[in-house]
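// run 5 | inverse folding | seed 20
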């Protein structure tokens, strides 16, 4: 910077003094001079690299180590020519560039840079002492041979062959060596990709932050304009280039290389106008000739650059490609007596850039439209394309936003099921391929700071970070702010602090002022780069304390703009109208009115749907008055009036009024009248109607559970479909509350009577008996949003539930303590921002670890049923249910606490969530995987000392069951799949067997089917038409890596007694991390004690059939054209086989093996897998390879039991099942999922099979394509 800063090292003042008096000179080309020496390979190798394994000729930088005499001689020639600045011989002095010569070790790279700076410094010191003229060493930091903004692959524009971090790390090593060697200045030069330059500047700042004892050096930055378009290779204009690197406060900025002086001049002029730094220029010696050489003579070049001095455009002049000491001498002579450029202070304003600059000049720009449609929370269409991985469509939406007037594009990928890091990287990389979008600045938006960094590392322009806050305290705020500053971005600061979200004027001003002072006074942030978001909160919710939210925002904005110089005000405008989601026209009108008044109070930026904000003056006057009444809280009926108007709006936003049948509903039955009152929020008649209903029902509670709950269910459906708005839901809750209030005295009287009766019997009663249940609810740690949570509390409270609201930002410990203290029946977690999803997973894990088994409800804007099913349910064994919105909470809670119907409800949820998980995993694309070696380093770990293997089996070897009594299997039949086969499905609460028989629609047919099936079973048992056989084998076994060795001798487990090996497959899909602990990569071998442990372990296996004779019988019915009985036979045989497996496993646990001989489980417990151990089958998720059945068959000697295997390893008869038996208490079912080629090759080698054969059997599990 040309302007002095407090505490800067003396060299800054020295340079300013010199540049104020004359134009200084920088040296010319190093490469041109080296070529003149005609050096050989031996010269480049020297003594140090005589045995190096790669040719070094052409690696000019290494000559500073191997021929320092030549480099010093060249330096001295340039100093003699009059150069004030010498560039070190380190243009390619990074690990990345030196990798081409296999010299990318830290030691070699350090030596190149250190020795280069040392040589140049020695020459400068000697010549300065001899002449008295100051000389300076510029540590040359070249662009590397990689580019961060341009893909090297035409086929894959999102691909980059290096990362920002890799380049920044390489630069930081170079910077350290240059400084250690004596560099006075750091010169980031020949910048053809601004993102590379930003990485260099990032590294410089990082280096000096890490070495506070070393004085900071002046920074020069020199870009390269590649052609007459005036843009860098990565597409930026000169002005955009300056904006992008200005955060580093370069002492001098300029251009070099590519162009001759004549062509470079207009862009040097531009840099002078747009920057506040000194200006440097060192063009080539003209344009290259046909052979790539430079023909411009010294005197000719001096005359061509003369206008740079005559017109006062530069402070430093010199030469690049093709120039020699003679060129520099001629230029120095020509510039004697020329007046240097005088830097000018820039008017203070927010400056941003994409490929082009954007200035928020208040004289020109009153308001900045930040396009919201590239945000998964701001556009369902965009989210759909993101989830589908359709980046072309995503880019189309971005282009459309710019076409519609967005001056900045907000991009956000905060969605629980997305890999936000990878998506942010890929999309930002692709943006560079679309100039129509890349020309505007980008707002990188995420509540996860590491995701923000991913975006910043892919964008060459000056971005906006959205956002940071004081929520996690000042230390974290400072850390984030310093990182943002290092990347050169502006920042949005949310009005949050450690206590929570600011809603009042006082809190907004207090928090923002505190943040401003930290940013400006401590971090050194440019005040013009600070954008406050004082929280645009939802108005017209029907909750009184929300009525002042818009007014508070306006007042706070005005104060902030007046008291905090340079700051800006922004916000998510759509938040203000969220109460009316679904009514697009009304919401857009609200946005227009809100912005009209907000801009007058200093709001100069907003996240909006560009192009869909109506003109303020075009809004219907009646509607505008109603909106402004709400915005400014002009009267208590403002919300009600706007709501009433909204109900008369058609799809085109016009009013439709028809009152002819207004009160017709009053003639309907009381049940329908109550429902109407709830849906419409009418409380005028609720007292009379509730009393009338009470007279008709046996108990007052039945009125709540009947007509009132029916009405609330309708409210939930309408609200979920976007056909009701938040204020309507609140009104519905109020109607409900009034109705319940009428019923409570009668309910209390009824309860009091029961309590007296209980006391008379000596039973203990508590106050909680007065409630339908206790519900603990909290917004999770890190999240301060509580509107939805509060509504849930209102609705549940209205329905006679005791609600314990823990507030916001609740750590898991607080939640668990409250659950214990209040003996909660259900716990609910709420959250709005994406990190809350991770926190919910963590809370679920804590609940599981502490042994809680109460239902867990998940809700909030960022949550979803899919995320709950995939991420949370597997970590908590108790019921976990996603609640779409507040009005549905009553239905869910009542279903969970209804002991009569709870089982069926949970079965429905479990089935639905299982399908969701299967859908999710089946549809995943571009999954990340770890290599097999990495996966094996993180297996499922069992402490075999604390939880030893199961005991020695009572019956080692083979046990066979022939013609097993079918009557013994009947109690083990699970009838639900039987009805699924027939597509007989009831509706909740009568969906599953046996309540299916009570279903009004299918109950009669289900009963008929059931009776006929049992008649057929009776016949099978009597006539032996269908028979059941089975076999069980238990063998000594130990694991060796991913294999399970099976032995014939329990006491001598060695290769000589090994009778076979089961080969298992390990998970490779990259695991989701929760609190830095990754889930293990499991294989079935993890559940068997390792051979190296010295522990004896065992493995069981079984095969069972209930279908011997079924094929004959089916053929008979088929011949008789009796398809019904044919299907019935198959269905029953299938059920018998599964029942036999259940019975066998029970026998194994209790008697044959005996590891759970005291087990006492009923049928429902068996079906819910509450027993110890697992019985996975080959060909299924835990071991997807069917060929493993061959060893099972051999060990069990199963062929003599009328069971067999086909060549494709399917069992015959078809109504047969088999599996391996793992007895350890920690064994569990899991899915291997997709696997990588390295595991397939390893697995094939272990099994002695061709890779192609293994791929055939595991094709559905391959993460790569193969030829079928």
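// decoded
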């Amino acid at each position: 910077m040309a302007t002095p800063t407090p505490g800067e090292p003396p060299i800054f003042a020295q340079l300013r003094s010199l540049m104020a008096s004359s134009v200084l000179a920088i040296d010319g080309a190093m490469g041109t001079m080296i070529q003149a020496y005609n050096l050989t390979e031996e010269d480049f190798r020297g003594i140090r690299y005589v045995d190096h394994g790669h040719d070094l000729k052409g690696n000019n930088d290494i000559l500073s180590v191997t021929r320092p005499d030549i480099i010093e001689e060249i330096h001295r020639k340039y100093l003699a020519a009059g150069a004030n600045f010498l560039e070190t011989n380190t243009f390619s002095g990074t690990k990345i560039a030196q990798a081409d010569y296999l010299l990318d070790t830290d030691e070699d790279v350090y030596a190149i840079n250190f020795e280069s700076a040392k040589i140049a410094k020695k020459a400068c010191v000697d010549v300065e002492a001899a002449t008295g003229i100051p000389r300076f060493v510029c540590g040359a930091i070249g662009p590397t041979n990689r580019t961060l903004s341009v893909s090297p692959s035409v086929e894959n524009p999102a691909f980059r062959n290096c990362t920002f971090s890799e380049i920044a790390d390489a630069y930081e090593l170079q910077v350290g060596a240059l400084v250690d060697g004596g560099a006075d200045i750091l010169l980031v030069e020949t910048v053809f990709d601004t993102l590379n330059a930003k990485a260099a500047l990032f590294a410089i700042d990082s280096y000096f932050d890490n070495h506070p004892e070393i004085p900071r050096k002046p920074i020069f930055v020199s870009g390269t304009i590649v052609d007459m378009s005036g843009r860098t290779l990565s597409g930026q204009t000169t002005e955009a280039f300056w904006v992008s690197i200005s955060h580093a406060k370069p002492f001098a900025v300029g251009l070099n290389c590519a162009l001759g002086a004549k062509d470079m001049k207009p862009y040097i002029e531009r840099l002078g106008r747009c920057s506040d730094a000194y200006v440097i220029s060192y063009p080539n010696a003209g344009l290259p000739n046909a052979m790539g050489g430079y023909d411009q003579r010294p005197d000719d070049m001096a005359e061509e650059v003369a206008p740079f001095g005559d017109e006062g455009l530069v402070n430093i002049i010199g030469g690049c490609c093709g120039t020699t000491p003679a060129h520099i001498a001629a230029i120095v002579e020509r510039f004697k007596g020329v007046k240097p450029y005088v830097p000018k202070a820039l008017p203070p304003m927010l400056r941003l850039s994409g490929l082009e600059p954007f200035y928020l000049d208040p004289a020109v720009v009153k308001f900045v439209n930040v396009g919201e449609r590239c945000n998964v929370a701001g556009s369902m269409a965009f989210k759909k394309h993101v989830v589908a991985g359709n980046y072309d469509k995503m880019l189309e939406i971005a282009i459309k936003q710019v076409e519609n007037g967005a001056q900045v594009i907000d991009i956000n990928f905060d969605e629980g099921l997305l890999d936000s890091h990878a998506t942010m990287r890929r999309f930002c990389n692709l943006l560079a391929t679309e100039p129509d979008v890349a020309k505007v600045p980008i707002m990188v938006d995420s509540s996860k700071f590491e995701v923000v960094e991913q975006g910043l590392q892919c964008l060459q322009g000056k971005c906006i970070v959205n956002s940071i806050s004081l929520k996690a305290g000042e230390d974290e705020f400072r850390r984030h702010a310093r990182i943002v500053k290092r990347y050169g971005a502006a920042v949005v600061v949310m009005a949050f602090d450690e206590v929570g979200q600011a809603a009042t004027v006082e809190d907004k001003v207090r928090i923002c002022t505190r943040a401003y002072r930290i940013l400006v006074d401590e971090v050194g942030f440019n005040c013009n780069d600070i954008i406050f978001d004082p929280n645009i909160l939802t108005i017209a919710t029907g909750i009184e304390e929300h009525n002042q939210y818009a007014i508070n925002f306006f007042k706070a904005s005005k104060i902030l703009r007046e008291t905090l110089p340079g700051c800006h005000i922004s916000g998510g405008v759509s938040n203000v109208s969220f109460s009316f989601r679904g009514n697009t026209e009304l919401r857009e009108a609200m946005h227009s009115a809100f912005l009209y008044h907000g801009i007058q109070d200093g709001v100069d930026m907003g996240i909006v749907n560009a192009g869909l904000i109506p003109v303020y003056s075009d809004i219907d006057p009646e509607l505008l008055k109603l909106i402004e009444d709400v915005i400014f809280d002009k009267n208590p009926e403002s919300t009600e009036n706007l709501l009433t108007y909204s109900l008369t709006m058609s799809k085109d936003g016009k009013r439709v009024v028809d009152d002819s049948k207004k009160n017709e509903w009053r003639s309907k039955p009381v049940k329908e009248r109550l429902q109407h009152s709830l849906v419409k929020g009418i409380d005028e008649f609720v007292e009379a109607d509730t009393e009338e209903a009470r007279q008709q029902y046996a108990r007052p509670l039945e009125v709540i559970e009947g007509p009132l709950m029916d009405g609330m269910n309708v409210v939930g459906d309408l609200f979920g479909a976007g056909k009701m708005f938040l204020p309507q839901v609140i009104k519905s809750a109020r109607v409900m509350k009034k109705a319940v209030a009428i019923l409570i005295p009668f309910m209390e009287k009824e309860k009091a009577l029961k309590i007296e009766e209980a006391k008379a019997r000596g039973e203990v009663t508590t106050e909680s008996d007065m409630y339908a249940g206790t519900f603990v609810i909290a917004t999770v740690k890190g999240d301060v949003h509580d509107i939805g949570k509060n509504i849930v509390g209102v609705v549940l409270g209205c329905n006679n539930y005791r609600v314990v609201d823990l507030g916001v930002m609740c750590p898991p410990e607080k939640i668990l303590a409250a659950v214990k203290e209040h003996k909660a029946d259900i716990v609910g977690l709420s959250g709005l921002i994406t990190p809350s999803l991770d926190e919910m997973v963590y809370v679920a894990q804590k609940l599981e670890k502490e042994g809680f088994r109460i239902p867990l409800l998940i809700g909030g804007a960022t949550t979803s049923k899919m995320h709950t099913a995939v991420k949370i349910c597997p970590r908590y064994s108790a019921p976990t249910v996603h609640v779409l919105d507040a009005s549905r909470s009553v239905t869910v809670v009542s279903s969970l606490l209804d002991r009569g119907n709870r089982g069926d409800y949970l079965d429905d949820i479990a089935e639905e969530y299982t399908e969701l998980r299967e859908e999710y995993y089946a549809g995943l694309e571009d999954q990340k995987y770890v290599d097999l070696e990495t996966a094996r380093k993180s297996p499922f770990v069992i402490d075999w000392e604390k939880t030893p293997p199961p005991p020695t089996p009572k019956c080692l070897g083979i046990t066979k069951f022939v013609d097993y009594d079918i009557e013994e299997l009947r109690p083990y039949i699970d009838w639900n799949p039987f009805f699924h086969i027939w597509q007989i499905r009831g509706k909740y609460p009568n969906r599953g067997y046996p309540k299916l028989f009570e279903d009004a629609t299918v109950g009669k047919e289900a009963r008929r089917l059931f009776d006929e099936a049992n008649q057929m079973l009776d016949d099978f048992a009597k006539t032996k038409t269908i028979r059941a056989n089975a076999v069980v084998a238990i063998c000594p076994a130990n694991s060796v890596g991913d294999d399970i060795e099976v032995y014939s001798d329990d006491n001598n487990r060695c290769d000589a007694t090994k009778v076979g090996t089961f080969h298992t497959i390990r998970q490779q899909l990259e695991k989701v991390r929760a609190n830095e602990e990754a889930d293990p990569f499991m294989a079935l071998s993890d559940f068997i004690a390792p051979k190296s442990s010295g522990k004896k372990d065992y493995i069981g296996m079984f095969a069972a059939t209930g279908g011997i004779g079924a094929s004959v019988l089916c053929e008979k019915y088929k011949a008789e054209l009796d398809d019904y009985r044919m299907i019935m036979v198959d269905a029953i045989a299938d059920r018998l086989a599964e029942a036999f497996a259940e019975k066998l496993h029970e026998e194994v646990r209790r008697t044959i093996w005996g590891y759970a001989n005291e087990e006492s489980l009923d049928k429902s417990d068996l079906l819910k897998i509450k027993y110890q151990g697992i019985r996975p089958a080959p060909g299924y998720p835990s071991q997807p390879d069917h060929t493993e059945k061959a060893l099972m068959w051999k060990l069990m000697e199963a062929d003599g039991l009328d069971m067999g295997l086909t060549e494709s390893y399917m069992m015959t008869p078809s109504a047969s099942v088999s599996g391996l038996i793992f007895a350890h208490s920690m064994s569990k079912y899991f899915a291997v999922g997709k696997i990588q080629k390295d595991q397939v090759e390893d697995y094939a080698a272990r099994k002695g099979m061709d890779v192609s054969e293994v791929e055939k059997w595991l094709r559905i599990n391959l993460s790569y394509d193969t030829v079928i």
